[in-house]
Structure formats: C-alpha cells, structure tokens
Amino acid sequence: MDIRTTVHAGESALGLVDELVQLRRLAEPGRVPGQGGAAWPGGGTWAAGLAEAARVPGFLAVTARADSLLCGFGTAVRTPDPYAGEPLLGDGRAQEWLAGAVRVTELVVAPVARGHGVARRILATLTVPALDDRVWAAPDHRDARALAFFRHQGWRQTVFPRPGDGPSAVVFLGPAHPSLAGRPVMGC
Description:
Elements: E1 3-9, H1 17-27, H2 46-53, E2 60-66, E3 69-78, H3 91-98, E4 102-109, H4 118-126, E5 135-137, H5 144-152, E6 156-159, E7 171-173
C-alpha cells in the first residue's frame, strides 16, 4: 500500500473537517458515547470541536492517503504552559511532564488500512514539532487497540485507570520524553 502523508497546520485543516468526520465514523463505529463521530469531549459536535481546535495556535493535522482516498489522520496541539489540566497526575507532574509539550489528540485509521504502518507514519509526523521529545497522549482508557498501539510504539504509560466509578485517565509519554530519564514511571 503506497501511503502519502500531508501536514495541515492550523486553520488549513478546516476544509477537511467533513472528510475527517466521515473517516472517524467509519473507523470507530462502536466508539464510547460522548466521544463518537457525533460528539466532542466537553460537549458539541465532533466537527465543531475539531474546527475550534484547528484555530488553537500550534494545532496540526496529518492526513494519510492511499492514492486519493483518505485512510487515516491524526491531530496534535502544543499544551499550554503553565498547564495544570490532568488531575490524576497532580499539578506538579502535569506542569513538569506536559506543559509546553506536543499532545497527540486524535489518531484514526480506516479498518482496511490497519496493519500497514499508517498510524505509525502519522504519529511520527505529528511528533516532529516536539524537537525536545516532549510528546504525550491521553487515549480513552477503554480503547484497548489504542493502548496497545502506544505501548507497541514504545510510549510509556504513566497513569492507569482508577477502579470503580471514579474519574479515569491514561497518559502516555513519548519514548524519549526527557521527564522519564532515570525515573520510575507511576504505576509500573
């Protein structure tokens, strides 16, 4: 499969929203309510949320195409600095590990394109702006395929889901994230 990736910085991704929504619906038909093709975390439609995210400074989208057919995409944005947005890490760790780092926010591959390195290529392109290797992702803790993918790529899981009904999150740091050098990882 000959795959070509294209980078779309900031608002240049706005013209792709409908196509990305369609691929997301195809790739993730059983997505958890509130995070599926129709809804965006925090409310509103996924299309409106993506359009809003594209206006955030540092937003990046990467599309992957086989010939002219969209077969995958990913999005990333630079985390604000200061950053205290991950309560399960605590303010100190969130600031140290995530502030100013590149956060991978979406990674979607069409079922027919899985197993061909599409997600790996998209992820590699999304993380290029992290010249200091400070990259992270917080995939849905119920998405076994996403968790396995990040682990297989050498990303380090630092927060694990809480048992019971309490808030849960999973945070992965990129394989060369400088905050991990010589430190044990939480929960490992």
